[in-house]
TrEMBL record:
<dbReference type="GO" id="GO:0003700">
    <property type="term" value="F:DNA-binding transcription factor activity"/>
</dbReference>
<dbReference type="Pfam" id="PF01035">
    <property type="entry name" value="DNA_binding_1"/>
</dbReference>
<keyword id="KW-0489">Methyltransferase</keyword>
<comment type="similarity">
    <text>Belongs to the MGMT family.</text>
</comment>
<feature type="domain" description="HTH araC/xylS-type">
    <location>
        <begin position="11"/>
        <end position="107"/>
    </location>
</feature>
<keyword id="KW-0804">Transcription</keyword>
<protein>
    <recommendedName>
        <fullName>methylated-DNA--[protein]-cysteine S-methyltransferase</fullName>
        <ecNumber>2.1.1.63</ecNumber>
    </recommendedName>
</protein>
<dbReference type="GO" id="GO:0006281">
    <property type="term" value="P:DNA repair"/>
</dbReference>
<keyword id="KW-0805">Transcription regulation</keyword>
<dbReference type="GO" id="GO:0032259">
    <property type="term" value="P:methylation"/>
</dbReference>
<dbReference type="InterPro" id="IPR036217">
    <property type="entry name" value="MethylDNA_cys_MeTrfase_DNAb"/>
</dbReference>
<dbReference type="InterPro" id="IPR008332">
    <property type="entry name" value="MethylG_MeTrfase_N"/>
</dbReference>
<dbReference type="InterPro" id="IPR009057">
    <property type="entry name" value="Homeodomain-like_sf"/>
</dbReference>
<dbReference type="InterPro" id="IPR014048">
    <property type="entry name" value="MethylDNA_cys_MeTrfase_DNA-bd"/>
</dbReference>
<dbReference type="Pfam" id="PF12833">
    <property type="entry name" value="HTH_18"/>
</dbReference>
<dbReference type="InterPro" id="IPR018060">
    <property type="entry name" value="HTH_AraC"/>
</dbReference>
<keyword id="KW-0227">DNA damage</keyword>
């Protein structure tokens, strides 16, 4: 689909900017790298990001990321007091329900999982749900690979390729510009530790960043940074549980299970649109 093609070009342009920012590439050089005319690329990038490619670079720089990390304590305090209006996710009530011990142990036996593919701002997504809530959201650069990953999480489940109202509601929440959001219920397979980490991720406001160490301290286990990193990396709900907002202390964005360039694009877009 065209939206997916456009996002792949944007991600490629962002990668080019990151790799070549010291030489200050021209608009023509960036456009040429993604095989587009200057005018067409400028229109497409501005329509997606809301700003020019060079301005966007500011929001994906290490220095800017470090400044966001310094502000994190203020943002977190604001959230804990219930005063933040900067993040849509704070206005959105996400209800996490862990699977029962039997559901966890049986790897999805007796679960009917409905799934479908949808277009989003940051690429195609696979959204899946049980009768209790959304159990899986992943970026799907390849539909078959994405479905295989879902099956690996619940190898004994029964699958039905069919959208439903839960998917549509989650899709609305996945659109950072959508204001008509209802409660999203998540039905997650995870250990108690993983669930605690994923709940902590929900407290990172849009336009802010955190670190693995900060998350570890927040859940009362400051020496568990490495274990937190593993739990963050196994997050089964892309974007809504914002593991993309966790970066290294150095300001380097680091890896992302759904492509580091997508993580960069997400951070840049969010910081830009909360700064406006």
């Amino acid at each position: 689909m065209q939206q997916e093609v456009d996002f792949q070009r944007i991600a490629k342009a962002i990668h080019f900017l990151q790799e070549n920012f010291k030489s200050q590439p021209t608009l023509g050089q960036i456009a040429s790298h993604v095989y587009m005319s200057e005018a067409h690329f400028q229109r497409m990038f501005t329509a997606w990001a809301g700003t020019s490619p060079k301005k966007f670079l500011q929001y994906i720089s290490i220095n800017y990321a470090k400044s966001l990390l310094k502000e994190n304590n203020i943002a977190e305090t604001t959230f804990q007091l219930g005063l933040s209006s900067s993040s849509r996710l704070h206005e959105l009530f996400i209800n996490i329900e862990g699977m029962t011990p039997a559901e966890y142990k049986n790897e999805g036996s007796n679960l009917l999982i409905s799934y479908a593919y949808y277009q989003s701002l940051f690429g195609t997504m696979l959204i899946a749900s049980t009768s209790k809530g959304i159990c899986h959201i992943a970026y799907a650069d390849d539909n078959i690979t994405a479905f295989d990953a879902l099956q690996q999480r619940f190898p004994n489940a029964t699958y039905l390729q069919q959208g439903n109202s839960m998917h549509e509601n989650a899709l609305s929440a996945l659109n950072p510009q959508d204001k008509d959001i209802r409660q999203v219920k998540l039905h997650l397979k995870g250990t108690d530790f993983q669930l605690k980490v994923w709940e902590a991720l929900l407290k990172i406001p849009m336009g802010n960043l955190s670190t693995y160490g900060a998350i570890a301290s927040q859940i009362g286990n400051p020496k568990a940074s490495r274990a937190v990193g593993t739990a963050v990396g196994s997050n089964p709900i892309a974007y809504l549980i914002p593991c993309h907002r966790v970066i290294q202390n150095s300001g380097i964005f680091g890896g992302y299970r759904w492509d580091p360039m997508r993580k960069t694009a997400m951070i840049g877009w969010e910081t830009l649109h909360t700064a406006i």
